[in-house]
Amino acid sequence: MAEFTNQATLRYNNTVTNSNIVVGNLVQALDITKTAVREEYSTDENTTYVIGITNNSETAYTGLTLTDNLGAYQYNEQTQLIPLTYIDGSMRYYVNGALQPALTAGNDITITGINVPAGGDAILIYETRPNIYAPLDAGAVVTNTASLTGPGVAEPLTAEETVTTRTGAQLSISKAINPSTVSANGQVTYT
């Protein structure tokens, strides 16, 4: 939060008097956050992201655009790789908690037409899946950045979230018996 100060000066007949110094705080009208539902990713699970946009002002913001880089990173000087793929149709858009008509997002996730009422909020929830460019080494991360622009937004607002690759084996096991009811000295098969 930025602070500002102000002091008045009064001059009359070669006499100068200064007022007290007042301090104020500048709050940003719009605030953006980004959160991954899970802190880890793996190739066999979707990653859900939640973007929250809060309007702290008394004026509504309309026609905003959100872009998401889907974790894009530079592989070499000429190649940019995108490790996440947007799950088509997964976008949910809420204004002040009420589900709104779906906004469409392409694979590059550019969403237009976002509205945030005065003193209200908008939430966008969507899913991604790691693709062949997602690093899977132990300790590897994907840092995903969202950027908000539009009328009344002087400079793009950004929020990022970092998820780490899940380490260790991802195993599951189940056991079955057939038949489930047997007589004494009967035979069963376990699978």
Structure notes:
By secondary structure, this protein is mainly beta. It has no helices and 19 strands. It has strands spanning 2-6, 9-12, 15-18, 22-26, 30-36, 40-41, 47-55, 61-68, 73-74, 80-81, 84-86, 92-95, 98-99, 110-116, 121-130, 141-149, 157-165, 177-178, 189-190. The strands form 6 sheets. Strands 5, 7, 11, 12, 13 and 15 form a 6-stranded antiparallel sheet that branches. A hairpin with a 2-residue loop joins β2 (9-12) and β3. The mean pLDDT is 86.
Helix content: under 10%
Radius of gyration (Å): 27 Å
Helical/strand content category: mainly beta
Number of distinct helices:
0
Shape call: elongated
Secondary-structure element series:
EEEEEEEEEEEEEEEEEEE
- End-to-end Cα distance, whole Å, is 62 Å
- Unreliable stretches covering 5 or more consecutive residues: none
Strand coverage percent:
over 45%
Mean pLDDT: 86
Major sheet summary line: 6 strands, antiparallel
Q: How many E-type strands? A: 19
Observed structural traits:
191 residues; mainly beta; six-stranded antiparallel β-sheet; 0% helix
Fold blueprint:
Layout: E1 2-6, E2 9-12, E3 15-18, E4 22-26, E5 30-36, E6 40-41, E7 47-55, E8 61-68, E9 73-74, E10 80-81, E11 84-86, E12 92-95, E13 98-99, E14 110-116, E15 121-130, E16 141-149, E17 157-165, E18 177-178, E19 189-190
Parallel strand pairs: 6-17
Antiparallel strand pairs: 1-4, 2-3, 5-7, 7-15, 8-14, 8-16, 9-10, 11-15, 12-13, 12-15, 16-17, 18-19
Outline of this structure?
This protein has no helices and 19 strands. With 191 residues, the chain is mostly beta strands.
